Input
Amino acid sequence: MEVAKLNIVTVIVDALRFDVLCRVIHSGLSSNLSQIVKGNSFFKDCYALTNVTDSSLTTIFTGLHPLTHGVLSHGDRLSPWETKRAHKLNTLPKILSRNGYFTIAVDFLDRWHSQGFHIYKTPSASLLMQKISQFFGFLTSKPTVNIFISRITQLVESVSYKARLPSFLKAISDCISNRFFKHFVTGLGGFTNTKYFTNFSLNLLNKISKLSKPFFLLIHYWNTHSPYHSEGIDIERVRKIVERYHKEMDMPLNNVLKRIKHPLLVSYLKNWFKLRKLKDTLDVISQYYAAILDIDKQIGKIINFLEEKNLLDNTILIVTGDHGESLGEHDIYFDHHGLYEVNLKVPLIIFSPKLANEGMFNIMMKNNHITHLDTVPTLLDLLNLPKDSLKFDGQSLLRERKDNSLIVAIETYTETKLSAKNGDWKIITSITPKEAMCRYCGRIHGGLNELYDLKKDPHETKNIAQDYPEIFNSLKNLASKYLARFKLYHKLSRLSIHLKKQKRKNKHFK
Ligand SMILES: [Zn+2]
Output
């Protein structure tokens, strides 16, 4: 007799930062996440290996380091080479559909992310909203068209900035970009509206739950990505919690705008702050906290649905963030560039009453140094699926693991840097000084070489690289040895310049 396979619901909450989620859970305002983490399945030591969605999501669903799967950048900065390579990857939805799963995703990223899914959809607003919005021409359920509109908007903006257009043309271009932006901010297009995402997903699930197949559902919520969006959350109460943790970060938003150099980003932020009537950083941070509380409600809806349909006992629910978010820490505002803890440390929740009863979580929770590399091998073990010839950079949390205390992360989108964390020590280092410059902020965040003692300084406020050069160098050497295993690290021209320089230096010392 065949054993019934477990269903999987994976919730990716974009830019979900670990420490903020913990505060929201303990705020007394969360009613669902605070319940599900009680099942001893909340991993408090999980890391993303990069800080952009395209790259990180690829890691989450392949169990491969960005330097193995080759998707290093994101969105408009991906090379055709990266995209082509990504399409050939063996991803979790592909593995599951080969093993008899019905696979559904609700997201708008598309491209290789949609491979292996029987259904890959972007929800749009209610029918009435759709009609009204279509009348004004700024809503479509097709992700490609939405992306096309956003590209046109960006192009119009960038031309108007570069060409110093006469004021009447500038006004027209502002009007176009504001119109698209309004659609984005209000969530009409479904990008940031969690309610549409949840209802859409559960409707699909309702239809396919009659099939005799196990299912894999991916929901990727975007409301926690800027411009943070929530509905029905008491923002005044949220602000009181935010004041408790972020009081010293409070400043007028005009000062934030002065810290950013990229003209399109400045215009985007200005629009966002204006449309939402936000005055200071704590206002914006409150929006982020509220967005997580909105997610809390969605998780409740998903669990209720599974319970009603008698599916909860047969389903594993996974919640994680693709990366974190910097809310002003390290002089980085409402974005996730930089390899600091706020951007890399993410929650990982694996919720399943059945597995909890079987004692599976007791085994898994003994592990530490968990990364996104471990989710696919762990899941395949939990589902008892064959790994065959599949290769992962991560290790299952159900097996004896090799030493994995070294966590090496990389970013190439806004600036090019590497970070290596080993126990309580962490370095962040530039690969080439030229590429260490942040193209959003026009400065090098934290310097070319950073060293932090996370035990004494968990918020990475005191760079001690110059005080402890031997610790910095030994961790850098450890990272270099780790990186040497990746063919791509040597191939990448930008990265190899650095390696060549290092080699030359070593020769000199010999
Ligand atoms: Zn920056």
